[in-house]
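Table S7 (text form). Paired inputs.
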Amino acid sequence: MGKADIGLDIGGEYSEIEKYREKLGVGPYTSESGNTVACINLDGKRFFGVNSTITKESQEATKALRQKWFENIQWVPPKKKQPLHLGHAQSLTHGEAHSLINAFETMGSLPKKITMVVDRKTCNMCRGELPALLKALGVEELTIFSGGLSEPIIIKAIQ
């Protein structure tokens, strides 16, 4: 699947992430900063997600929301064992999960297929844990353009 196949201007979405970072008062992503911004565009409405530690305010403001979803998810393989607390489900502290949760909380439901743009490469934690979140959100497939890569990552919900 190439960029043209999804009908979304990926470069334009990266620009929207840059604008969102400016609004937050944080600089561009660097490997030293470790902070991430993810964006989902659903019919022209953007839902941003951030790492829980991008700002002190975001950490406090999103803790209860992330905890709520930790408790709503049926954690099954590929995660090897049931996480005991939010710290064991690291993907929920990442921008990818946060943008999905923000969209669901606002819309009440999500499309079966979603495309996301993330300003850094999606980590292995997210690749391994997001399938359980996708199932809880009713999403079958997530296409992620991350870190400027031209080819997307496809993540499917657990069955």
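Next pair, protein 2 of 2.
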Amino acid sequence: MIKVIKPGVLLTIQDLGRVGYRHLGVSTAGSLDSYAHIIANRLLNNHDNDAVLEVTVGLCELEFNCDTLIALHGADLHAKLDGRAIYPGWTYTVKNKQVLTFDIGRGGLRAYLAVKGGIQCPLIMGSRSTDLNAGFGGLHGRALSAGDVIPIQAAANTQAMKQIGALTPAKRKAIRLHPSPHAKLLGPKLVNHFLSTGFKVSCQSNRMGLRLSHADTQQLVHCHSLPSLAVSPGSIQLPPNGEPIVLLNDGQTTGGYPLLGNVIAADLHQLAQFNAGDEIVFNYVSFAQAQQAQQALAAHLAQLNIALHNARG
């Protein structure tokens, strides 16, 4: 078991999300940085979809009540185990009663803590992910609080573990998009301004979406309204006030705002690590370019598998 001493800003249990229920209005949920999630699990020889802890901003404190193995990935939130610094991208042995702390950090917003065997909360609609808006999944459907006990299995023979590490895919400031399905409705002037503008991430952003601001909001103001249509993580909505919203995993399943485009699958995980005040720019790419980007990520994970296999002998 892991006892939460301090939850920090936002601490949740997540796997890779709830798939196949969006037609019923159920959000995907799941780890926002899916590649950090997958790499952390692979470092421990877990299943990719095993549940992990998503640590947002940091400032949390966890006490382990059994021996286990852990791996960190994602942002460097200055983690320490009994006061000794540990780093994202590496595996570590943890002993009963050791305490893991996170400070605020650098290089992103969210860190992912995987434990050997994964977190053992119940499956709901095929997933252990916490849906904060609907109030189910994870532990009682909410963010973790001080005093909560997180169920994990003790790991046997932790002394035999060989410490191994892995790099994360490179971070991007320029996010690639599939072109806008509403380009004709919005007009070329508005679309071109969107593509030539640097946006700042608003402090009002959360797991539902990144809210973006920019110096000249009037250039993106409009009065269009549409019948509700399906949206998904990565859809970029444009409200009438001209400040785009990039939907994330906890976002709604339908919406009536025009869309400026959809973030390609290969770049979705990048959105998890933007802090308030960070700048984002967008550019449209072809379907072939989007496929190439996805293939590059798949190759990164394939190389990791080979390296881990060789490291474990």
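The mean pLDDT is 93.
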